[in-house]
Amino acid sequence: MIQGTTRRRLLGGLAASASLAAVIIVNATVNHAQGDTPPAAPPATPVSVATVEQRDLVAWAEFSGRLEAIERVEVRSRVSGVIEAVHFREGSLVKQGDLLISIDQAPYLAEFERTQAQVLAAEARVALAAGENERGQQLMASRNVSQKDLDTRFNALREAQANLRAAQAAQQTARLNLDYTQIRAPISGRIGRLDVTIGNLVAAGASAPLMTTLLSVDPIYAAFNADEKTVLDALASLPEGNRSLEQIPVRLTTATSEGASFTGKLRFVDNGIDAASGTVRARAVLDNPGGKLMPGQFVRVQMGQARSEPALVINERAVGTDQNKKFVFVVGADSKAAWREVTLGASNDGLRIVTSGLKAGERIIVNGLQRIRPGATVAPESVPMAEKSELRAAKTELAQR
């Protein structure tokens, strides 16, 4: 009885072992069959690509600067007197010759009329002396007058003529003083605040109080410090035989110009380099109709060169950073993205100049850079290197910096 039970247990264990072995064999066969099937390839990543272009560009370098008035005048009185009227509004634009301030004319008008009377009297004496001299000449012909009498008459004429010239000079001085009571704008520009009001007595000469200031606004200077390499490169770009600085273009933006730039020309480069900073003081001149730009205003100045040179340009968004390296992804004919280190130059009209690492005609990824790994397959879609909206945004960013 015991032997029969033991036999049944042994047979049951063998059957279970056989079943387990069959399951293991089947699973191994299935797994082996699945291992022979390659995994599905990941889908291509859609990206925007643009073709690297070569353009003839003027190399621009950017600096901080300030606007300066070309002319600055301190308005003071040239005669003493009481201020009667003010004919301008503080902060307004005035033209050369406009009446600014009137000083009491009464004493100067009286002086002018007195000198005018002196001139008339002197003219009468000249006429009398001239007649006496002429009669003396006639009498001398008939020997009815002595030479001494003739000399006396001639000297009287010369003295009368000298007195007339002195009276005329005094009249001219009186006329000038009378004119000086009408203080007029010596230049066109923007006038400042009035420091002396109506009713005050002002002195003349060096002790005369400052009445107001007048700054020219059109044209206007933009002064800035440029590094020596940029200045030397710009000077080297000037053609032989014509070294005029005005061939070097300059443009600038302000915080309120909303990306719009003002164009001008280089007017002045200092005759030496500041040893402490390695910079050169430079100044550009630009038209400023309407006085939109104001002296003292902060500006971003870009100085170019006298001639253009070929250069490769790419979109800033196409550039990635890997520690201290700049790179782009180049898309080949097989639609695979290849990592490429590049060396960048200056910005130019919203694009970035590439000095090494790329060739004209190569395609680079300009959008979706963060989703790409080297060697990845991409689905390229051709787009312009930079849209107009991007260029406008770049100019606006320049103005706001």
UniProtKB/TrEMBL annotation:
- GO MF entry, a single one: transmembrane transporter activity
**Which InterPro entries does this UniProt record tie to the protein?**
MdtA-like_b-barrel (IPR058626), MdtA-like_BSH (IPR058625), MdtA-like_C (IPR058627), MdtA-like_HH (IPR058624), RND_pump_MFP (IPR006143)
What biological processes does GO assign it?
Answer: response to antibiotic
Q: Does the keyword Aminoacyl-tRNA synthetase apply?
A: no
Location in the cell: Cell envelope
Cross-referenced SUPFAM superfamilies: HlyD-like secretion proteins
Location of the Multidrug resistance protein MdtA-like beta-barrel domain: 219-304
What's the protein here called? Multidrug efflux system membrane fusion protein
**Organism (species):** Bosea psychrotolerans
